[in-house]
Amino acid sequence: MDLSESFWDWRYQNQDTGWDLGEVSLPIKTYFDQLKDSSLKILIPGAGNSYEAEYLFLNGFKNVCIADLSKTALDNFKNRVPSFPSANLRHTNVFDMKETFDIIIEQTFFCALNPNLREAYAKKMHSLLNPNGKLVGLLFDKPLFTERPPFGGSKAEYINYFKPYFELDIFETSYNSVASREDSELFIKFLKK
């Protein structure tokens, strides 16, 4: 299965982004709205069009970094939010990153990865977080595709990946998902062990 940079560039160039809501996801926006410290260093991996980064940045959070394998996705974001600092756009494989963050926002990156990388994802997110760091966001809680992203799964499966690295503070069906994702998303807030 080809999930290379060229695969993702093609998807963005051809607007083949069915997972894209076109706006910040309400469960994540609700989480952002209760954050008080705008100096927090926040990473959004596999960010794509990253309406979440745009929302944070426009609300005073200046230490937001987005990372994506697709240069097209990053260019699209920069064109949409030209005042976003170029230094905070990371054209990289997230698994190659070394710096650390206070919060990592999960929004469709996990489901875009080859499922055989899920354990490695949990371990990498742990390593990218500062002490007391948090992994927050959404995971699909239903079977989706098996031959291409987005790849689905279940809470029972995910526990095995995350429990060795995180305290599972919140891990429940999202109460405020968009209608098309109602009862199929888990809201997570995991605390680094």
UniProtKB/TrEMBL annotation:
InterPro entries named in the record: SAM-dependent_MTases_sf (IPR029063), TPMT (IPR008854)
Swiss-Prot/TrEMBL keywords: Methyltransferase, Phosphoprotein, S-adenosyl-L-methionine, Transferase
GO biological process, one term: methylation
Gene Ontology molecular functions: methyltransferase activity
Name of the protein: Methyltransferase domain-containing protein
Leader sequence residues: none
Transmembrane segments: none
